[in-house]
Automatic annotation (TrEMBL):
Transmembrane regions listed in the UniProt entry: 26-45, 51-69, 81-103, 123-143, 155-175, 181-200
Subcellular location(s) per record: Membrane
Domain EamA per the UniProt entry, residue ranges: 51-196
Source organism, top-level taxon: Bacteria
Membrane topology category: Multi-pass membrane protein
Chief localisation class: membrane
Family, as annotated: Belongs to the EamA transporter family.
Origin organism lineage: Bacteria, Bacillati, Actinomycetota, Actinomycetes, Micrococcales
Protein known as: EamA family transporter
Record's keyword terms, sorted: Membrane, Transmembrane, Transmembrane helix
InterPro entries in alphabetical order: AA-Vitamin_Transporters, EamA_dom, EmrE-like
UniProt xrefs under Pfam families: EamA
């Protein structure tokens, strides 16, 4: 929950630091998403630790920096290139601090039960690790950078909140977990925020010079 307050930080930085126009619908969408997440997480029934709150705030700041910097990176190069360099530096970091050398090689070939509704299925750890690396790390980063190439950082951040909804969907289908009526209302509120954000599209600005060049390329030089 605290991590996704990073979406609000993105909007505030865009408005007051970069002097970008943030439409009223975006603020409404952020409110819907954050309130919806609070309802889904049932924060009133949670106990908070100081260390946990600090970690959540740092996660929110990191998320905001990710969207703001990523938006500017994909404006200069391709999402695939940004993903490559991001993953390269991340790999270099974990190469030093993850203590990967302490993992016994034979551990990777051991079968691991998937539990829940898939409890009868067991897969080798190396395959699950590969899955997490590709579909849990590289692919999400690539798709998020692709989104930043077509949406503002604020709008992309709001859409990313759908991750929580998919998490609950998989928890229901895979682990048999369920939401009560109030939590379902929170899910609907998050979805409403995402929809509202997509209706707040920026006004299109037409570059007359580029438009003239396109007309020449399509129709040939004017006579």
């Amino acid at each position: 929950m605290l991590e996704y307050t990073g979406v609000l930080i993105v909007a505030l930085v865009a408005r007051f630091v970069f002097k970008e126009r943030v439409k009223s619908r975006i603020w409404l969408a952020i409110g819907c998403v954050l309130i919806g997440m609070a309802v889904v997480a049932q924060i009133w029934a949670s106990t908070l630790s100081e260390l946990g709150v600090l970690a959540g705030i740092l996660a929110a700041i990191c998320l905001a920096v990710y969207f703001l910097v990523g938006e500017r990176q994909v404006a200069a190069t391709s999402p695939l290139a940004v993903s490559f360099w991001s993953m390269l530096f991340a790999s270099a970091f974990w190469l030093v601090f993850s203590a990967w050398w302490q993992v016994e090689p034979q551990t990777l070939v051991q079968d691991v039960a998937l539990n829940g509704n898939l409890g009868a299925v067991s897969l080798p750890l190396w395959l699950l690790t590969l899955w997490n690396g590709v579909f849990g790390s590289f692919a999400p980063y690539l798709f998020s950078y692709m989104a930043l190439g077509r949406l503002t950082a604020t709008a992309a951040g709001i859409v990313s909140a759908s991750e929580v909804i998919f998490a609950f969907a998989f928890a229901f289908l895979w682990l048999g977990e369920s939401l009560d009526g109030l939590q379902m209302a929170g899910v609907v509120l998050v979805l409403a925020g995402i929809v509202v954000a997509q209706t707040a599209r920026p006004n299109r600005v037409v570059d007359l010079d580029l438009a003239s060049q396109d007309m020449v390329l399509l129709n040939g030089p004017l006579r």
